[in-house]
């Protein structure tokens, strides 16, 4: 665990959960697995604060626990899972792209709460969607339920492990911590719920004070005291499935850049056919026959079977091996390789060393067509930054420089790890910059929020335009300009965070796939 990763985890925890949770999480990341007693002693926090913080971290899958043989429970932070908080906006945007606003809010609610029952998610999302609709329109629970089922069918959400049912025995005390289990076959099975109803809008204060509304509220509260039909069945976002989708999109984009749009559409179809049947960590998709691929091509995509076979052959023969042939039945069996290269946009020398593996300085100058002095400076600079390494091959045992070959080469895995480390540092710096910008303009932001609240209140009571204009003028022109600059800067920082995270995902995927290769 590098210092850059620890710092980024600390910033993410503080921003999303507050100081106490951040202190507990960072402590566990730095020290590793610890029992409750040690956490309380070393952090100096109250026992109740530590317990609540651990509950929050466990609820969001950021900390796991394990019952030791000696009978006590130890807690361990999941640093990689904490870093995934950085990717939450991308998960939510992907859900919106695939399943519209309803899918977006389902994923957002699950990410905000960690784990929720399906009935609770459906009601909350229906209420939120109803709030955005015109007066008189509401969101039906059934529509939200249908989107939830689609997310489960495509494995973007999954069930959480449960405490197994076992007969209670008065003679045997319960264990200090429960052991959670889940049957893999049940992970995406949606319970049959008859959720009837529509989303509700928030009532105004006047309505709350009305006696009739009070009676209805009491009746509704009495009904809600009953456990929901899916009580105990909790759901969470399947982050690995989103990563699989990102990876598939990257492969499709790479095929389109290297070949053409038709080739990328064929690969997209193959990935879509095997997205649920193939594990997110598998090196290849499930084999698909040419006939199956042809039948599954998008409607209106007018290519004949013979042309499809030619494209598949072309993809299988490509040096990057996006597609591999695994058999001849069904017109030919094909798979998509997940471990293909992501390509490189590095400097000319770096690309040259990647291609040629080992080169002397003179060969680098000749192949790259770069002047000797410039090539030497660039090689030494890349060497000092650990992008390239130097290998000595002596002709004689005395290692005399005049009788030694000096070959430059690239350790791709090492370079990827170094770039990943720099990306973590970059995101941490961006987050600190955003916090600084917000802190420096705190007074102005609070003033702007007060003015907006007054305007909203006056608009609700039907104030005249002149009165509203007078309130708006409480913020001067220079202050308004300062707010615009702040908003623009924060938006740029947010966009930069997302762009760096895309690079992090590519580097992490490359490192993970490289480590899996035999």
Automatic annotation (TrEMBL):
GO terms for biological process: DNA-templated transcription. Keywords: DNA-directed RNA polymerase, Nucleus, Transcription. The keyword Membrane does not apply. GO terms for molecular function: single-stranded DNA binding. One of its GO terms (cellular component) is RNA polymerase III complex. Residues 146-336 form the RNA polymerase III Rpc82 C -terminal domain. Coiled coil: none annotated. Residues 342-410 form the DNA-directed RNA polymerase III subunit RPC3 winged-helix domain. InterPro entries: POLR3C_WHD, RNA_pol_III_RPC82-rel_HTH, RNA_pol_III_Rpc82_C, RPC3, WH-like_DNA-bd_sf. Pfam families: HTH_9, RNA_pol_Rpc82, RPC3_helical, WHD_POLR3C. The keyword Transcription applies. Residues 199-232 are annotated as: Disordered. Residues 7-65 form the RNA polymerase III subunit RPC82-related helix-turn-helix domain. Component of the RNA polymerase III (Pol III) complex consisting of 17 subunits. DNA-dependent RNA polymerase catalyzes the transcription of DNA into RNA using the four ribonucleoside triphosphates as substrates. Specific core component of RNA polymerase III which synthesizes small RNAs, such as 5S rRNA and tRNAs. Belongs to the eukaryotic RPC3/POLR3C RNA polymerase subunit family. This is DNA-directed RNA polymerase III subunit RPC3. It comes from Burhinus bistriatus.
